């Protein structure tokens, strides 16, 4: 090593200081090249300070070890010695290095240890061990540094299960205190979730050889956060990681950005990339560790090395067509072909969210790389899957973020780019605009039992702030965007108008209720002039609550809820004038249905037809999205138990009921169904008829078979708690029957359970209209007493309560 007295000027304190100032304030370098140049300059200076030594090495650790020196970064340095020299000599060497650094006013994190001491310290201090993983030789005995690195990595890999658990626990504790970087107006660039500390943790996980982080964009995101921290240090002249509001415009200017919003947008984008990589990586760590712990058990059970040839088939449970569960994730089936199935991305996401599972990053990358373009307008199945995804509640959020991470959301909804990672400079808001929209949909999922069109509520929740980030009033701009989106995803004209109204007036109820006199008729007219029917008012009420709950705790309270409810009650009363028609009443049966009924009466048994139905592109006649799949018609001589038997047989064959129509005609029951296979090929008509005959005569145990299926289905729905079912009596909805409206989470066997509950209540179902909107079932049953008369109000209420109990409400 060169003697300090013969170093170039830049190696002496004055020379180093001048060179450092030139590099930071006058040089052309920025970003990673400047950080690397500052590290090289500091290496040269510290190496010269150490001088010629034997059995001693100067080692950079931590961020300095990675060669990433920000303007005000600490110098993390370890003086390593072999333990043969007198301690006073080692102290003198240390003073020779430390004091010039202190004299320069630089922050120094230093230690003096032998390799054995360094190893013991690392064993008891995770942060020390992490620092050693980035150890880099500066000067002195290179063999000491090389041996230290080798030992540090060997110990890390040997102790990985315990050390990684400790690392994750520390990270979770840090996040509890610091929050999520991408949602904070004054984030800590290092300590908050998605910040530099998490990026460093991912390097440590990779060093364990247990798992590796997704590489796409991660290094770029980390470099951007470091660039922002550099600019923050230069702006403030302090070693700070907190991006305070009053400094954001200056930091933005240093980085050549237009304003503080542009700065936060870039920071949030980077943090989102790091956060997603961390989620994926830690999930993979857990999977690997679980697999390791299970191997000895498998060997004991199967013998040898896991059975014949040591191979154990990984269990794969079907979730939807082309989607299976494997190792706690939703993955693509082996037969899935994304390039020929543009709806697969939404179907996989919906299946994952409904099952409460993460969507495999490998599956998302494959979908992003190979899925073909979505037809315009969307097929009805695509719209159904989007609504199903949004209706899953809190599990929707991580699945949506997985789609966002690979650009699938912006490809499906180009308008999303306006709101992605957009900050909201309002202390009331907890989230960025994009996350707020997804959170609103998750909140709205719990309110779907309150509305007749849950699909419109969920889509309106996703779009209500879509106009933010564009010039003008975001409600007005958003209305136009919502119309474009609604038409593109296949809603008809009437539904598009409703969605546009909800987006345009999503602030109407809360603003009016909290700022106007509710007793003033003009206040109510403000609402009824904008919302002209009770169904839309019902939707707007639920959207208002979901929006406020997703904003933050200060945006909704019992007082605000009561004011809004009072305003809605007054507006609904004003809109209720005039006679109401029977909204669910079916029209006359088709001629072919009458022919089936005649055949059933003639043969004394069920008659059915099953036809493939081209996928609908527009809305159905009742305004709901057009169903997809196959059309099944059944005629049966009128007898008890037809509805639960037919619905049970369909559930056993994994046929999902999209819509159903039941009516009694001349001594026969006619059932018209729109069904779709959950996955695989549908059964033939002959097989369905044979099983229906057995279900009606009692030789097929439909309840028992479905109970087994339901138990397996419930186990798979981790983390998802749907809103409870609701059964209400529709007052004055029919002159000759009692109308029971059922709103519930759609699931296998639901219609069978409804039919059994009605049978057990001793009522006759004269007709029914059943529709599935995403993950929600909205059904109406026209029932009578056995004598054909409508139920008394007391009897109707009792039946409704019994049905809620039977459905788990």
What's the structural blueprint in terms of helices and strands?
Layout: H1 13-26, H2 31-50, E1 56-60, H3 62-65, E2 75-81, H4 87-103, E3 108-113, H5 115-124, H6 126-133, E4 136-140, H7 142-158, H8 160-178, H9 196-207, H10 218-236, H11 245-254, H12 260-302, E5 317-320, E6 323-326, E7 329-332, H13 344-355, H14 361-370, H15 380-390, H16 396-405, H17 408-412, H18 433-445, H19 454-463, H20 474-488, H21 493-504, H22 508-515, H23 521-530, H24 534-551, H25 558-575, H26 591-603, E8 607-613, E9 629-637, H27 642-652, E10 655-665, E11 668-677, H28 685-697, H29 702-716, E12 726-730, E13 738-745, H30 750-760, E14 764-773, E15 776-784, H31 793-806
Parallel strand pairs: 2-3
Antiparallel strand pairs: 1-2, 1-4, 5-6, 6-7, 8-9, 9-11, 10-11, 10-14, 12-13, 13-15, 14-15
Helix pairs in contact: 1-2, 5-6, 5-7, 8-9, 9-12, 10-11, 10-12, 11-12, 13-15, 13-16, 15-19, 18-19, 18-24, 19-21, 19-24, 20-21, 22-25, 23-25, 24-25, 27-28, 27-29, 27-30, 30-31
């Amino acid at each position: 090593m060169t003697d300090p007295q013969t170093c170039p000027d830049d190696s002496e304190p004055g020379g180093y200081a001048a060179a450092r100032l030139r590099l930071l304030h006058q040089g052309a370098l920025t970003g990673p090249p400047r950080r690397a140049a500052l590290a090289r300059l500091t290496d040269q200076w510290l190496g010269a300070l150490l001088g010629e030594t034997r059995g001693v090495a100067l080692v950079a650790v931590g961020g300095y070890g990675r060669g990433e020196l920000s303007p005000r970064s600490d110098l993390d340095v370890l003086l390593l010695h072999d333990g043969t020299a007198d301690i006073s000599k080692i102290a003198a060497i240390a003073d020779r290095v430390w004091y010039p650094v202190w004299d320069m006013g630089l922050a120094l994190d230093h230690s003096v240890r032998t390799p054995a001491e360094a190893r013991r310290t690392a064993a008891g201090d995770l942060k020390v061990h992490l620092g050693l993983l980035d150890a880099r030789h500066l000067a002195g005995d290179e063999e000491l540094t090389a041996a230290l690195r080798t030992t540090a990595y060997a110990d890390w890999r040997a102790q990985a299960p315990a050390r990684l658990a400790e690392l994750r626990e520390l990270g979770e504790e840090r996040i509890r205190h610091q929050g999520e970087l991408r949602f904070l107006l004054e984030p800590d660039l290092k300590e908050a979730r998605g910040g530099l500390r998490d990026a460093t943790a991912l390097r440590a996980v990779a060093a364990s050889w247990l798992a590796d982080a997704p590489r796409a964009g991660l290094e770029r995101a980390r470099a951007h956060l470091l660039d922002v921290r550099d600019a923050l240090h230069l702006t403030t002249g302090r070693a700070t990681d907190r991006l305070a509001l009053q400094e954001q415009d200056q930091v933005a200017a240093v980085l050549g950005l237009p304003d503080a919003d542009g700065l936060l947008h870039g920071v949030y984008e980077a943090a989102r990339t790091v956060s997603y990589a961390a989620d994926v990586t830690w999930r993979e760590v857990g999977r690997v560790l679980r697999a390791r712990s299970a191997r000895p058990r498998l060997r004991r059970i199967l013998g040898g090395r896991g059975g014949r040839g040591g191979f154990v088939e990984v269990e794969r449970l079907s979730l939807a067509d082309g989607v299976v569960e494997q190792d706690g994730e939703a993955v693509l089936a082996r037969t899935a072909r994304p390039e020929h199935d543009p709806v697969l991305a939404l179907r996989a996401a919906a299946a994952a969210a409904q099952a409460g599972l993460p969507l495999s990053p490998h599956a998302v990358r494959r979908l992003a790389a190979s899925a073909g373009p979505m037809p315009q307008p969307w097929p009805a199945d695509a719209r159904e899957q989007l609504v199903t995804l949004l209706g899953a509640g809190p599990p929707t959020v991580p699945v949506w973020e997985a789609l966002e991470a690979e650009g699938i959301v912006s490809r499906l909804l180009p308008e999303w780019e306006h709101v992605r990672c957009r900050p909201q400079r309002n202390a009331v808001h907890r989230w960025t605009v994009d996350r707020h929209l997804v959170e609103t949909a998750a909140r709205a999922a719990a309110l779907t039992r309150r509305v007749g069109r849950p699909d419109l509520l969920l889509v309106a929740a996703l779009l209500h702030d879509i106009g933010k980030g564009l010039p003008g009033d975001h409600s007005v701009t958003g209305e136009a965007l919502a119309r474009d989106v609604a038409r593109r995803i296949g809603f008809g004209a009437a539904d598009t108008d409703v969605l546009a109204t909800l987006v345009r007036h999503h602030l109407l109820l809360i603003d009016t209720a909290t700022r106007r006199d509710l007793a003033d008729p003009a206040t109510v007219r403000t609402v009824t002039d904008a919302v002209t029917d009770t169904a839309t008012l019902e939707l707007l009420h639920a959207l208002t609550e979901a929006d406020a709950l997703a904003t933050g705790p200060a945006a909704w309270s019992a007082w605000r809820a009561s004011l809004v409810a009072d305003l809605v009650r007054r507006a609904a009363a004003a809109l209720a004038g005039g006679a109401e028609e029977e909204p669910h009443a079916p029209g006359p049966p088709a001629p072919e249905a009458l022919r089936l009924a005649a055949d059933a009466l003639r043969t004394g048994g069920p008659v059915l037809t099953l036809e493939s139905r081209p996928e609908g592109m527009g809305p159905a006649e009742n305004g709901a999205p057009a169903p997809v799949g196959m059309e099944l018609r059944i005629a049966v001589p009128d007898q008890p138990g037809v509805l639960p038997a037919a619905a049970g047989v369909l559930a056993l064959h994994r046929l999902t009921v999209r819509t159903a129509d039941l009516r009694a005609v001349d001594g026969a029951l006619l059932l018209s169904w729109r069904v779709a296979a959950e996955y695989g090929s549908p059964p033939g008509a002959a097989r369905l008829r044979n099983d229906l005959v057995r279900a009606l005569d009692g030789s097929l145990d439909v309840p028992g078979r479905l109970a087994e299926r339901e138990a397996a289905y419930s186990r798979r729905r981790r983390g998802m708690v749907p809103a409870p079912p609701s059964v209400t009596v529709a007052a004055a909805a029919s002159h000759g029957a009692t109308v029971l409206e059922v709103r519930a989470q759609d699931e296998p066997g639901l219609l069978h359970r409804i039919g059994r509950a009605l049978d057990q209540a001793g009522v006759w179902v004269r007709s029914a209209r059943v529709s599935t909107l995403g993950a929600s079932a909205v059904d109406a049953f026209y029932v009578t007493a056995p004598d054909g008369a409508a139920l008394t109000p007391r009897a109707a209420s009792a039946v409704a309560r019994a049905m809620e109990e039977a459905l788990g409400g």
